[in-house]
Design goal:
The protein is mostly beta strands. It contains one helix and four strands. It is flat and about 35 Å long.
């Protein structure tokens, strides 16, 4: 992940995902490059849409 000409803020949300706020370029495992202004990244490991959070942390009772 690399910042693209802007301030990048990263926060770990209590019992939830990692919030990345700011222009970011993410390279997925298949080589696809995605540019976003805000990302919620899975931290619990249960998302069916990894690396993105799909709210599964609520369903599994993730604490962290």
């Amino acid at each position: 992940m690399e910042a693209k000409d802007s301030l990048l803020k990263v926060r770990i949300l209590p019992n939830g995902p990692i919030l990345v706020d700011g222009k970011v370029e993410l390279t997925l495992s298949d080589g696809t490059v995605v540019e976003k202004d805000k990302l919620h990244l899975c931290r619990c490991g249960a998302s069916n849409n990894k690396p993105y959070c799909d709210g599964s942390h609520v369903k599994i009772g993730f604490k962290g």
